């Protein structure tokens, strides 16, 4: 059982003016968000939130900390897939035997986030809710067809990750909802490719997640490819995925799918690379991920 290690015993000075509330259940957290409205901000591991506070990008008068909610960091295999509590921290997830057995590529995607100090503090719920485009887990989990559970004043609802990321730093969560759980379906094969253009501990220039299923004759039964970090939200090109279904992934077909992804997506330009460069890299890394899954990578 993973242990919750993100208590906020030492509150930084700039937070002295902020009321720090510590509910012990998700329902209580949501009720506090209802009570305090626009004044409140959820804080989980605090990796993004403390930076936003420091840079004065946000100025909440109330922080609703999820750090004292018990049992919110579980990792559990169930019949419909792997269930991960929103408070599970990335470092525990990358090392978890359950995650590694369930999907080694998913464990890999967690292990390449930033650096060990970040992963020791960051929760998966926080990583997804932050909806930072330059991230790793969102692309991999979108490829795997994961969905999340959100708890709000009207109860619980499920949101597919395909519909969760709405834009830069924006998700489908209501301001009064908290993300409580991530559910990941099982896939026989998968691959995660992080492309870094700056430092080895940096955020991705490009993130490619692939999930695939093949029949005994090695014909592709199902394929999902999600590209993140180079675009605003993780994106799939369903027409290109469909090209694989019912076919053997030959060199030509892999190249054609990679080309479709490269042409159809509209990459952005930032410090990690230009749109032109990213388009080139999408072709390279979609091909690399497809090569891995056709060779049996999990
Ligand atoms: C130096 C550095 C390098 C990094 N490199 C990478 C990288 O390579 N790849 C990558 O993927 N990420 C990277 N990150 C981002 C990091 O992974 C995220 O900041 C972290 O995962 C956020 O999780 P947290 O638990 O700290 O969330 P917090 O900072 O506590 O919260 C983040 C956001 O989510 C909201 N929130 C948190 N939990 C919930 C919840 N359960 N329900 C609803 N809303 C919630 C908060 O209100 C806030 O808006 C990096 C960050 C830093 C500082």
How does this structure look, described?
The model is unreliable at 1-6 (pLDDT under 50). It contains 11 helices and 13 strands. The longest helix is centred in the last third of the chain and has 20 residues, at 275-294. It is of the alpha+beta class and 298 residues long. Strand 2, helix 2 (47-54) and strand 3 (62-65) form a beta-alpha-beta unit. The protein has 3 domains: 13-65, Uridine Diphospho-n-acetylenolpyruvylglucosamine Reductase, domain 2 (2-Layer Sandwich); 75-184, Uridine Diphospho-n-acetylenolpyruvylglucosamine Reductase, domain 3; 189-293, CO dehydrogenase flavoprotein, C-terminal domain (Enolase-like, domain 1, 2-Layer Sandwich), CATH 3.30.390. Helices cover 34% and strands 23% of the residues. The strands form 4 sheets. A 5-stranded antiparallel β-sheet has the order 4-5-10-6-7. Strands 1-3-2 form a 3-stranded parallel β-sheet, covered by helices on one side. The structure holds flavin-adenine dinucleotide. Flavin-adenine dinucleotide (FAD) is lined by residues 41-49, 66, 86, 113-114, 118, 121-123, 125-127, 129-130, 132, 135-137, 173, 178-179, 203-204. Flavin-adenine dinucleotide (FAD) binds next to strand 2, helix 2, helix 6, helix 7 and strand 10.
């Amino acid at each position: 059982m993973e242990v919750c290690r993100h208590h906020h015993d030492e509150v930084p000075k700039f937070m002295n003016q902020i009321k720090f509330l510590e509910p012990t259940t998700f329902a209580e957290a949501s009720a506090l968000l209802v009570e305090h409205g626009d004044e409140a901000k959820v804080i989980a591991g605090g990796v993004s939130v403390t930076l936003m506070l420091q840079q004065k990008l946000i100025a909440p008068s109330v922080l609703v900390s999820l750090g004292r909610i018990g049992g919110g960091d579980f990792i559990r295999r169930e019949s419909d897939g792997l269930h991960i509590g929103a408070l599970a921290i990335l470092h525990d997830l990358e090392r978890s035997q359950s995650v590694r057995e369930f999907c080694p590529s998913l464990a890999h995607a967690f292990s390449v986030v930033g650096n060990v100090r970040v992963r020791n503090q960051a929760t998966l719920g926080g990583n997804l809710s932050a909806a930072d485009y330059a991230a790793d887990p969102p692309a991999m989990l979108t490829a795997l067809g994961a969905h999340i559970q959100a708890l709000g004043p009207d109860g619980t609802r499920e949101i597919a990750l395909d519909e969760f990321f709405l834009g830069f730093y924006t998700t489908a969560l209501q301001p009064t909802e908290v993300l409580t759980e991530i559910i990941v379906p099982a896939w026989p094969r998968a691959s995660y490719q992080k492309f870094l253009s700056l430092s080895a501990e940096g955020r991705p220039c490009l993130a490619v997640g692939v999930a695939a299923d093949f029949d005994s004759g090695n014909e592709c039964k199902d394929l999902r490819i999600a590209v993140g970090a180079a675009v605003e939200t993780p994106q799939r090109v369903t027409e290109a995925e469909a090209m694989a279904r019912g076919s053997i992934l030959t060199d030509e077909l892999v190249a054609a799918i990679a080309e479709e992804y490269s042409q159809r997506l509209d990459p952005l330009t930032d410090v990690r690379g230009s749109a032109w460069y990213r388009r080139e890299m999408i072709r390279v890394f979609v091909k690399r991920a497809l090569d891995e899954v056709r060779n049996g990578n999990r």
